Batch of 2 targets.
Target 1
Amino acid sequence: MAASASDELIRLYDLSKSFRLKGNTITALENINLSIHEGEIFGIIGMSGAGKSTLVRCINFLERPTAGGVIFDGQDLGTLSPAALRQVRRQMGMIFQQFNLLMQRTALQNVCFPLEIAGISGQEAKKRGLELLEIVGLSERANAYPAQLSGGQKQRVAIARALASDPKVLLCDEATSALDPETTDAILNLLKDLSKRMGLTVIVITHEMRVVEEICSRVAVIADHQIAEVGTVKEVFTQPKTEAARRLVYRVEGDPINFQQTEGTQLRITFEGGDAFEPILAELILETREPVNILHADTRTIDGCIYGQMVIQLPPRSDVYRVSEYLRGQGVAVEEVAAHV
Ligand SMILES: Nc1ncnc2c1ncn2[C@@H]1O[C@H](COP(=O)(O)OP(=O)(O)OP(=O)(O)O)[C@@H](O)[C@H]1O
């Protein structure tokens, strides 16, 4: 669904950021233009050093852009007084890879901290803090100290704390990068749920493609400090247009496959949104009685549909025509990439 201009929560315009370091100028971001809509989960991906963290810190003006600016909910942050900027920042929660909890305070006290700073009374802050811990599924650990919590639990506390000021957007800087895959899934589900239930806009900075696949609706690829590509996750992950996006999405440059030395015939199968490949291959083997060997697979499941490529090998003297026709009949594109007898 196309977003209307009124859906826009954040606009970055002509934004550049450079740092001065020992007489040298280091460019972190160059001429970034980006619009983020209310209620969406937006991913920002890029190689290390591309400028992702700087971008997120410019969004909430922890870093002031060197040129261009940020419009948040209709207000140009560069024009605000320090007090007005502090007010706006309260609408932008942030979570980090290392959680950044206060170690001498319990989970509940951590969540209450921003409420107390905002002048809310102890009793009221405690009540709200407990509600927030309930929302993130951690009520029973309210009195535990961070050292007594697992990584996933610490991140839940950090999320509850970030939600305390009732923000419009949650900025997540590599928020799941220190977590194991199972805990990552649990945190991603929580973020998805919060976005859906509270209409929260979430911006996810990550180097993990699967995080973007799992929760984001749109994604921007940053390369060499600029936006290389922006689009829906489906568009960017299935048909990356730039080399930078291809490198990230496929994790390789150019054509990743070279199995010229392998015996038999190799077929490249391209999936463009059909059902999972396991049943297709199982049926293929049953139907044609050919022993198919998977040489390479780089596929992704998005919205329950499969995209990407796979190279299969058939032994010498196989009925390649029959196998190809069977696969085409299942709606996948097939192309012979090598044949050796
Ligand atoms: N405070 C700073 N002073 C000087 N240079 C900086 C500063 N912050 C970032 N940079 C530089 O800006 C560039 C972008 O850094 P940034 O941390 O935004 O990249 P990143 O994409 O988040 O990388 P990573 O994934 O490794 O965290 C890098 O060259 C970095 O060294």
Target 2
Amino acid sequence: MIEVVSIKKKFDSMEAVKDVSLHIDKGSIYGLLGSNGAGKTTLLKIIAGIYKQDSGEVLIGGEPIFENVEKKQRTIFLADLLYFFPNATIKQMADFYRSIYTSWNDERFQKLKEAFPIDLNKKIERMSKGMQRQVAFWLTLSAMPDVLILDEPLDGLDAVMRQKVKNLLVQDVAERGMTILISSHNLREVEDLCDHVGILHDGTLMIEKDLDDLKSDVHKVQLAFKNTPPPAFFEALDILYKEERGSVFLYIVRGKKDLLVSHIENYKPIIFDLLPLTLEEIFIYEMRDVGYAIENIIV
Ligand SMILES: Nc1ncnc2c1ncn2[C@@H]1O[C@H](COP(=O)(O)OP(=O)(O)OP(=O)(O)O)[C@@H](O)[C@H]1O
């Protein structure tokens, strides 16, 4: 659905995006993470067809997005800084969206009133930051885009509204195959939303993972043995991290769960627990493995 091939972008001599390639399937939710200044917004704007890359290609549904009116009518970029016309009400902004987005759906707009309980005739400028963000989602979801590109989308929303918006996004992905690219600093925030995650650092995509693979391939185990097992026990494990707490070992290991369990059970541990890992933990160990401390890369 979205094909990004060797994208480079400089601002004067500053290389904001350095040869980034990625692929996003239709109907998936891709989380782009990274620290301040990593190049996330620049890359999102290139993918949305707002900035032109210096080299490389961005294809949406097989066609270049830049200056492609038809594709842009089906692609919405929701920026971190929202923009509405001065003095406009929700109703007036909806009229504008209806005039430019061919897939605008009035029925959906009316239905979403239930999710966003705000007076249609209220001036958006006079609303709180969180309410303005709600309006942005209301309008965006009513325009029924095929591709939705979100830059720090949940900033300013309260916890209940965050969950509501996440549910609406997932619903559009599940029901009509919308594709979402979402940028955030916060791994925890996107953990339950994304099926793929990429980490951008200093203009380079450091690591890119399918979350189902990640979660099924990395495990935290807590172990204790009566007698320390022979070296063959440890050699057979792909250990990303280890810690000793008295006679209890804590290991983060990569590998298939069934094979791991049967290997460990062969050595008759007196304690053996398989513990869940958060996405943040997985990335900490994976990044360490490629020589980076994730604490320096995302917050
Ligand atoms: N219009 C611009 N002109 C000049 N430099 C820019 C411009 N936009 C971005 N940059 C530079 O490109 C680099 C990447 O910026 P970008 O906004 O893409 O990062 P980001 O990952 O979105 O950061 P943040 O998380 O802080 O929003 C930064 O060094 C920034 O100063």
